[in-house]
Specification:
This protein is about 40% helix and about 15% strand. It has about 400 residues and is α/β, with parallel strands linked by helices. Strands 3-2-1-4-5-6-7 form a seven-stranded parallel β-sheet, sandwiched between helices. It has a six-stranded parallel β-sheet with strand order 10-9-8-11-14-15, sandwiched between helices. Helix 9 links the parallel strand 8 and strand 9. The radius of gyration is 21 Å and the shape is globular. The chain starts with a strand and ends with a helix.
């Protein structure tokens, strides 16, 4: 079976495309084509080395139209659109000849269209002082025009006989609430493919916070208050802010605080330039545990754990390590056994102290995480992606 994965738009979703390719490549006899934009050319070298039945196709320009139309002319059994956040007409006008699936990253953006919701998204992204700035025009389009254009993509998917894919059962329930006439297919945001945990039970712990450094997406105040409680253990762990810096989402004040904690003797990693997928995995594989700081309320108009999923949660699955996550985050559906839940910051501190000072507790948590991650191996989900 020939399967095409298309990720033409969002560099931050490269690891989602990587996971989809690994699932597809696990199907016996599958030939997988990954279609990307020229900007992502260097990011998938590790995947190609590991999966010989995956072929990389780089589009001729930033316009996806030529690459999409070429796919439509070829004999694929299924096409999966990983991320569609702009150029909607290009995707909607292609004369597809096979089922085309769409991975829905935000159910509210695709299905909850109203002036009220559009205004909520716009005001959550653009502060009042910037309403007259040029960047506001883009966010106005995103809030009010793009929802209408997305409808054409949904109709094209339906005409092709394709499916809507979501990353968790919680998102599936949310989508059914706003679109009760169809059941989406659940496909994980990622797969388990790393050898973790990278830090042994008795050594210093690398505590990883995967995802963009963004004040809108993550609550770093919780992290900094945690560091304030752990000065006596600063030599027993390293903090890894594993993601690109989102300058437009309040990252620079966060980095200023990071510098201040470094001056106090805390070991903190950060990355100015985006990493290739292979380099990202190399760092993630060193994690001993993952800390989720996802804002479960409004995150740029969407709600983590409900209308969208946090990549932080799924990076714990990719590495197969324990996940420190707040009790307000919904059930992790298959990875809950690896969760270390906390309701208060004092409980978070207690859990981190145990991970740092109790080798038995850390070893048991990591063993549970590895066992839970087995349910997310690529071959477990290959037939679901292929539509078998």
């Amino acid at each position: 079976m020939r399967i095409a994965i298309v990720e033409y738009q969002v560099p931050g979703h490269d690891l989602v495309a990587d996971a989809l390719c690994r699932m597809a490549a696990s199907v016996p006899g599958a030939e997988v084509t990954l279609v990307i934009s020229p900007a992502s050319r260097e990011r998938f070298e590790g995947l190609l080395a590991e999966r010989p039945n995956v072929t990389l196709r780089v589009g001729p320009s930033t316009d996806p139209t030529p690459a999409l139309r070429q796919l439509a002319r070829e004999g694929y059994g299924r096409v999966v659109l990983c991320t569609v956040e702009r150029d909607f007409a290009a995707y909607a006008r292609v004369p597809w000849r096979c089922p085309v699936d769409l991975l829905v990253h935000n159910t509210d953006r695709w299905f909850e269209h109203s002036v009220q919701n559009g205004w909520a998204r716009f005001s959550a992204t653009v502060p009042p002082r910037a309403w007259l700035a040029p960047v506001a025009r883009y966010h106005l389009k995103q809030a009010f025009l793009y929802p209408l254009q997305r409808g054409a993509v949904l109709r094209a998917v339906a005409r092709s006989g394709g499916r809507l894919l979501v990353s968790s059962p919680a998102m599936a329930q949310e989508l059914q609430r706003v679109r009760p006439n169809g059941m989406p297919t659940v496909l994980p945001f990622t797969v388990h493919c790393l050898p973790g945990p990278g830090t042994a039970a008795g050594g210093p712990l690398r505590l990883c916070v995967p995802g963009s450094v963004s004040a809108q997406r993550r609550d770093y105040a919780v992290l900094f208050r945690l560091l304030d409680r752990l000065p006596d253990l600063r030599g027993q762990f390293e903090l890894d802010l594993l993601g690109r810096v989102q300058a437009t989402e309040g990252a620079h004040p966060i980095l200023a605080q990071v510098a201040a904690y470094r001056a106090q003797g805390f070991a903190i990693r950060q990355y100015e330039a985006p990493l290739s997928n292979a380099a990202y995995d190399t760092e993630l594989a060193q994690a001993g545990a993952v800390l989720s700081l996802a804002r479960t309320g409004q995150a740029r108009g969407s709600r983590y754990g409900h209308t969208t999923e946090s990549g932080t949660v799924h990076m714990a699955i990719r590495a197969g390590v324990p996940l420190l996550v707040g009790s307000s985050y919904p059930d992790l559906a298959g990875y809950e056994a690896a969760a270390l839940r906390y309701s208060t910051e004092a409980e978070l501190e207690a859990l981190v102290r145990q991970l740092l000072t109790d080798p038995g507790f850390r070893a048991a948590a990591q063993t549970r995480a590895r066992a839970a991650a087995g349910a997310f191996a690529p071959h477990v989900w290959g037939s679901t992606l292929a539509g078998a």
